Amino acid sequence: MRLLEREKDKEKDKGKGGAVPASSGSSTSIPVKKSWASPESREGKELQPSTFEPGDGSASEDNKPSTKKARKLWTKEETQMLIDGCEAHGVGNWTTILNDPSYSFQSRSATDLKDRYVLMLSDLSESP
């Protein structure tokens, strides 16, 4: 009975031109979706001008608030505290240095300390 139904479906699809035989060799058909509108369906319709404006919440724009903080230059005192902290706690213990109450890093993160240390090393290696 199923074979007869499939054959009837095939006959219906042949007239429509909307099915393509499956590539796996089975007797089932895969419907093909037409993606282009015919010229007749577009008659009488005008194209509307684009109303895109930057910042309108499009997919390319993140709707999250910016987490990037303003750049703050390092003072000589902060740099010296970083050097002292590395001597006391060891290089790489940035969070320990940051949390040490004997040092006062205002609005600095452990990553800021690491970045400053790496920059100091590169400056030292470049100087003669």
UniProtKB/TrEMBL annotation:
<dbReference type="Pfam" id="PF00249">
    <property type="entry name" value="Myb_DNA-binding"/>
</dbReference>
<feature type="domain" description="Myb-like">
    <location>
        <begin position="66"/>
        <end position="121"/>
    </location>
</feature>
<keyword id="KW-0539">Nucleus</keyword>
<dbReference type="InterPro" id="IPR052450">
    <property type="entry name" value="TRBD-Containing_Protein"/>
</dbReference>
<protein>
    <recommendedName>
        <fullName>Myb-like domain-containing protein</fullName>
    </recommendedName>
</protein>
<dbReference type="InterPro" id="IPR009057">
    <property type="entry name" value="Homeodomain-like_sf"/>
</dbReference>
<dbReference type="InterPro" id="IPR001005">
    <property type="entry name" value="SANT/Myb"/>
</dbReference>
<feature type="compositionally biased region" description="Basic and acidic residues">
    <location>
        <begin position="1"/>
        <end position="16"/>
    </location>
</feature>
<feature type="region of interest" description="Disordered">
    <location>
        <begin position="1"/>
        <end position="72"/>
    </location>
</feature>
